[in-house]
Each structure stands twice: as structure tokens, then as C-alpha cells.
Specification:
Strands 1, 2, 3, 6, 7, 8, 13, 17 and 18 form a 9-stranded antiparallel beta sheet that branches. The protein is built from 17 helices and 19 strands. α5 packs antiparallel against α6.
Length: about 525
């Protein structure tokens, strides 16, 4: 769920800190270094823009559930949002009790609770919710709270640069900005923080507003961070114009990825963000820009007519800090009709390395694969380059076109994809062309074009190769036809909100072992709406 940050990697420590430094931080000398009288008590004026889970809050308020002291998510204080969502005096008293307990238990620095990304999230939740839980508290609680916040501010100001990930650095700075604003910082102090922040954002957010990872879930989380930072600058009167411009552009990408049911397309491991969170994020960001057809820097295309929306990944893979690649579904697409999703990608980024490889693979996306190989492979230095990207009006419809060379060094093959959506949205026609360039490499054998179907879609193959599809809850059916290969219906899997769901996929398989003689091979296909 967005707001509950994910760790960077199980194999890479996200914080640059030597063993000697860790020992020093557990000493009285370090406690003396970061401890001191607070500048002031916290002030109200900030309000948490995000909804919590009222059911979880009710269980916390009654003591049926308690935050795990050793759990990273608990150390982020996300449970404060849940208690606020429950509301009432009992929840407010419980919030003070849990905060007081945390302060008593955390007089000394330790990991993971004092890691900058976690500390930034905790300070953000404490500052944004203070008006609810803290203003009516007694003076003793407010003094203890201010002393703890001041100590965390000093530690975070020293440590945020030690985070390996720019996302984590930005998340830590957002906590620092909110805590400073709540402690009465002036516009000059917040302005200086924003000046430090802006180069980080320039390196993280592309000119069209897309997160450099090309991952919708990470994009949403970053956008929420920036909305919170804007609240801090607004409270103290600091200049937030540059921040507002980035928020506006990021909101445009969110709208581009959005299906009719409110959820984001499952590109590059997406699947944790609910439609409610997407709507909440767009609403709080205040973005009003129109839905765009192309994000040229981030590499996405969108065409839509009637109630049909088609979103295509026309970007290049991104190599993460841990050596994994996101974006192996090059030229993959998703298709929705109204609030029903039809063609999808399998979803979401997993923490388990084996599952992560599977869910990131080309085969987990609705695109073309060759000989069960990914379209990019870092070990071979093979990263797909996308070219020939076009999107716009065509005769009686809309056309999206792109090519990639991910199979050129391995097989001497280029992949060209065309998607044509007829006006009204009742007919999506596609072409996947394999072109032999004359380059050396393996002789290709089997090409397959996969169309992963949403779990609500049931597919039934007919003997002539046609596939009939029924969307649960819809009176309208769809038909799939293809030429240039054999059509099969196979089992698939779909992940959303951390849940695994059984689904189906249509696979068009074509023997292409003679392509060096023929020069090319084209697979044509179509999804057609039919009343039932």
C-alpha cells in the first residue's frame, strides 16, 4: 500500500554507515550530540492529507492490536493515520500513549528505527497529525514530544545524505521539512531545504513528469511525498512554485496510466496502488491537466476512443541499483473498456528474488517474446532501444507505433508493433512484425505474442482459432482472432494488492526459423467487441 514504504533490497543495505559509526551512535556521546532543548513546542497548521484504515484504527484504539516495536512499518508511525481515521477520544488517547511509549523506548539511536527513510516517514506522520492528537494533550506530553522531534531532526539532518537511494533521500527530506515547519521554522529555513531538494527531484523526475524508474507505484509514492512537502512550504510561506510545477507534471502521468476503474496500468511491477489511493492522490495534488497521449521521456503512449483505453509501454528498460532490470515488457500494452480491464500485465514487484525475476520477465507482459528469452538481458549487455515511436490520428481511428532492438544482438531481429484503435473503441487491431537485420546471432525458433487477461475475463477457444471472451458483469462479449501463428489459451497469474489471482492468457505462437530466408514474419491480431 502506498504510504507504507518498501525496503530497497534485501541484499543492499540502504544506509551508508560503517560498523564503527554504528558503535559510536549507540554511545552516550552521540546522545549528547543530538540531544538538547527544543526550539519550541509543535504547532498545529498541518493536516494529514491521506486517509487511514479506520478498521485497523478501531482495533488499535481498543488494544486488540498493537504496533510491533521491532517492525519497520510500525516505526514509520503509519498507524497514526489509522487511529485518526477511527477518530474519537479513545483513539486520540491511544495515539498519545503509543507515542509516549515510543519516546521512552527510543532514547538511544538504533536501527532500523532511526534509519533516515523511516525517520522521515515517522516525523511526517507526527507533524501532519499533531493538530489531531497533540494540541489537546497536557503540557508534559507536548514538551516530551517536542524534545524527541528536535532530537530526530538533528539526527536526520546529519544522516539523510547517507541513504543510497535518491527516493529515500527525498523521503527523508520531506520528513525534515514537515518537522521543521511544525517546530516553527521560518520561510528562509524551509526555502533552503527546498533548494537542497530540487536537484534531487530533477535527477528523479523526468521532464514529462515520470519517475526515472518508470514504475507507477514508485511514481505515486513520490508524488504523495511532494504533496506533503508543498504543505510544509505553504505553512511557512516559502516559495513552492517549482515544486508545484513538478507535481502538475507528475499528475499528468498518473492520469495517462489510469484505467476506467481508477487503477493504474500494471507496467514495471505495478499493482499495489488501489483506485481509491490514485483518486486521493490526484485530488490532493490538485492537478487538473488533461490526459496526455505521449510521455516521450518516460516512454508511454495512450490511445482511447469511446469507453476503450489502450496504454502502451514504448520506453526503454531501467537498471536498478541492485542490478535488476525493470521494463522487460517493452512494447507491452493494457486495454480496458469502461471500468472493466481486458488485457493486462501480470503485476507486481515482489520482494522474493525468484518471484521478482518471474514477474518482471517479458513473458509476464502482454508483448512479444522470442525463444523464451527476455527482450533485454543485462548479463549480455543487451538492453532494448526503442525507436520509431508515433501516436496520433489515423483513418477512422487512432494509431500507436514503436519498434525495439532487444533481440538484435541475440538473434538479429527487430520487433515492430502497431496498435490501431477504431473510432468508437469496438475494434483494436495489432501487428507484431519481426524483421531480420542480417546481424549474426542465434537462429530464432519460436515467437510468441502473449495477451494476459484480467481475472474477471473468461476465454474460450474455438476450433478455428477464434477466442471468445466474456467479462464478468458485462453483457458485451469480445472476440479475438489472429493470423501468422497458432492461437492457444493458457493459464496465467495476476497480482494485485499483494494477492495472487488465477487468470488466463491468449498466446499466438509462430515458428520463425526460416526468417533469415524470408526476411520477416508478421503476426496480425484483433480484439473485436460483439453483443451477446
Amino acid at each position: 500500500m502506498v504510504g507504507r514504504d518498501d525496503s530497497q533490497s534485501a541484499t543492499i543495505m540502504p544506509l551508508r554507515l560503517s560498523g564503527i559509526e554504528r558503535m559510536f551512535r549507540q554511545s552516550g556521546l552521540f546522545r549528547w550530540q543530538i540531544r538538547g532543548a527544543p526550539r519550541s513546542l509543535l504547532r498545529a497548521g498541518l493536516q494529514d492529507p491521506w486517509r487511514g484504515d479506520s478498521q485497523a484504527g478501531a482495533r488499535l484504539a481498543t488494544g486488540e492490536m498493537a504496533p510491533d516495536r521491532d517492525d519497520e512499518d510500525s516505526a514509520r508511525f503509519t498507524w497514526l493515520c489509522d487511529l485518526r481515521a477511527e477518530g474519537g477520544d479513545k483513539a486520540r488517547v491511544k495515539a498519545r500513549e503509543l507515542i509516549s511509549r515510543w519516546i521512552s523506548d527510543n532514547q538511544n539511536w538504533h536501527l532500523p528505527g532511526w534509519r533516515p527513510d523511516i525517520m522521515g516517514h515517522r516525523l511526517a506522520r507526527m507533524a501532519l497529525n499533531f493538530g489531531w492528537y497533540g494540541v489537546s494533550a497536557d503540557e508534559e506530553f507536548q514538551r516530551r514530544l517536542a524534545g524527541s522531534v528536535e532530537m530526530q531532526i538533528r539526527c536526520l539532518a546529519m544522516d539523510w545524505r547517507r541513504m543510497r537511494s535518491l527516493d529515500d533521500q527525498i523521503g527523508a527530506l520531506r520528513g525534515l521539512a514537515l518537522a521543521e515547519a511544525a517546530m516553527g521554522a521560518d520561510s528562509a529555513r524551509l526555502g533552503a531545504l527546498v533548494e537542497i531538494l530540487m536537484p534531487k527531484l530533477t535527477a528523479t523526475i523526468r521532464p514529462d513528469g515520470g519517475h526515472v524508474s518508470r514504475m507507477p507505484d514508485r511514481h505515486i509514492l513520490m508524488l504523495r511525498h511532494l504533496v506533503e512537502i508543498r504543505m510544509a512550504t505553504s505553512l511557512v510561506g516559502a516559495d513552492g512554485a517549482a515544486l508545484a510545477d513538478i507535481i502538475e507534471r507528475m499528475g499528468g502521468l498518473v492520469r495517462m496510466w489510469r484505467h476506467g476503474d481508477g487503477r493504474l496500468a500494471h507496467f514495471n511491477g505495478a499493482g499495489r496502488v488501489s483506485g481509491e489511493i490514485v483518486e486521493e492522490t490526484l485530488s490532493r495534488s490538485g492537478t487538473r491537466n488533461k490526459t496526455i497521449q505521449q510521455a516521450p521521456y518516460s516512454g508511454f503512449l495512450r490511445i482511447g476512443s469511446g469507453r476503450t483505453v489502450v496504454i502502451m509501454d514504448a520506453g526503454e528498460p531501467v537498471t536498478a541499483a541492485d542490478g535488476t532490470i525493470t521494463g522487460l515488457g517493452t512494447l507491452g500494452f493494457e486495454m480496458s473498456v469502461g471500468q472493466a480491464q481486458l488485457v493486462v500485465n501480470s503485476g507486481q514487484m515482489m520482494t522474493d528474488p525468484t518471484l521478482r525475476r518471474v514477474m518482471c520477465s517479458t513473458a509476464a507482459h502482454s508483448t512479444l517474446g522470442l525463444d523464451n528469452q527476455n527482450s533485454s538481458r543485462l548479463q549480455d549487455g543487451r538492453l532494448a532501444t526503442v525507436s520509431g515511436v508515433e501516436v496520433g490520428e489515423a483513418q477512422a481511428g487512432l494509431l500507436a507505433v514503436a519498434s525495439h532492438d532487444g533481440f538484435e544482438t541475440s538473434h538479429g531481429i527487430l520487433h515492430h508493433r502497431k496498435l490501431y484503435l477504431r473510432t468508437g473503441g469496438a475494434n483494436l487491431r495489432g501487428s507484431d512484425m519481426l524483421e531480420y537485420t542480417g546481424a549474426p546471432g542465434e537462429i530464432p525458433n519460436l515467437a510468441y505474442v502473449r495477451f494476459h487477461l484480467h481475472p474477471r475475463v473468461t476465454a474460450a477457444p474455438l476450433p478455428n482459432g477464434t477466442v471468445l471472451m466474456k467479462i464478468r458483469g458485462s453483457r458485451v462479449g469480445w472476440t479475438f482472432k489472429a493470423s501468422g501463428g497458432n492461437v492457444e489459451v493458457e493459464n496465467s497469474v495476476y497480482f494485485e494488492d499483494g494477492l495472487r489471482q488465477a487468470s488466463q492468457q491468449i498466446v499466438v505462437k509462430a515458428m520463425v526459423s526460416e526468417i533469415r530466408t524470408t526476411g520477416s514474419h508478421e503476426i496480425k491480431w484483433a480484439f473485436m467487441r460483439s453483443a451477446q
